[in-house]
Amino acid sequence: xxxxxxxxxxxxxxxxxxxxxxxxxxxxxxxxxxxxxxxxxxxxxxxxxxxxxxxxxxxxxxxxxxxxxxxxxxxxxxxxxxxxxxxxxxxxxxxxxxxxxxxxxxxxxxxxxxxxxxxxxxxxxxxxxxxxxxxxxxxxxxxxxxxxxxxxxxxxxxxxxxxxxxxxxxxxxxxxxxxxxxxxxxxxxxxxxxxxxxxxxxxxxxxxxxxxxxxxxxxxxxxxxxxxxxxxxxxxxxxxxxxxxxxxxxxxxxxxxxxxxxxxxxxxxxxxxxxxxxxxxxxxxxxxxxxxxxxxxxxxxx
Length: 302
What we know:
It is built from 9 helices and 15 strands. The chain has 302 residues and is α/β, with parallel strands linked by helices.
């Protein structure tokens, strides 16, 4: 299983990253499957650097704050108004029970049909596993001030180099310290965990976010192989939360960066980030530029 960080900035997009969105890829022996964990503000554009939107197999929404789900509105437009037609089934969207209604409200649509023509909305049942291709996704309730908030435990079983192997990733969603988070992360290969708050600065706020220290405590309690801190807002210092986490957790530790791809079992960085959607210049545009005697850089420069 591969993890690509599409967006890792907390609360709203930052200058170097969209809000929360994570692409997971695994192979079932026949084809690669691609699922998303969250589709937060600003993530839809960056996502297209790494995949065709028509290849999304499912989306899993951790909770209904805009920095985790709002680009479902943009994806609705991509599906519903494609002049060539979408040509695929509705996109499977798992999340809190109110996801379909919330997205219709956000876009100003009547709830019936809302976005149901484009998305197959399905509601999580806590601790009940969902299967999509080689993926098994289990939602665990966590502590955040919304009606439903979940950490997601994702297991992928693949045949690699002639052997069947299972890799495990846990994504915290947004949460403060709680038993559900540790349960979800138990012995995970990779723990993708939020660390939006700082010790000393945010101590008066309970039940909203983790600090680096509390993320490290959860990682240690869950006995995870490696910890990747994410959802760090622009006003929170990455070096500070990294140092806080290191004080509690002595395993492999890093901060999530938009565009980086990791092997979930190995922790290795696998591919270079794509800094422009034009890194995959369409054949049709390349041909048009050739006929016009133009250069790609001239087009980008306006």
